[in-house]
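Record type: monomer structure entry
Structure origin: computed from sequence
Chain ID: A
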Amino acid sequence: MKIEINEKIEFPEGFEFGINNSEIYVKGNSKETKKTFNLRGINVEKSGNSLTLSVKNGTKRHRKIIKTIAAHLKNIIQGLKEEFVYKLEIAYVHFPVTLEINKEKREFYIKNFLGEKRPRIAKIIPGAEVIIERNIITIKSHDKEIAGQMAANLEKATKIKNRDRRKFQDGIFITEKPGRKI
């Protein structure tokens, strides 16, 4: 069944936005975010301080795509207003872990994890700000995807293989995500 689908996204005052082919950019609070979407078959219209996504003879698939694009744009607007913050906690039982950031190479070093001689390394994604305070790591970014991926990279860097997880509970774990605590 073909239906008409319309979704309107309102941008706050002081925000600038535009469309270049399939790329939508948003500027605000001296920050800028660009995101590329698959806009085939979707009409995108800029009018005043809003962006309208529409399809005349749409299907369920078109509705899903439009709702996904709208959710991404709302996250971009929210991130430009206020940064997304992830908090991670270091847990160790066997050996004290030391953390270090190399800003030149944009790398995060996890030293003495489970007594290993070589440090475990996680790349710092451009656009993410990493802060270490004792055993709490804070990740900030105006892009939700960058902040979430950086938190996942740190958690993945301390994944334990070939050992009993009930006994070896060491690692870096996400304790707080934007909008909720875990």
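Annotation 1: The chain has a mean pLDDT of 91.
Annotation 2: The chain is about 20% helix and 45% strand.
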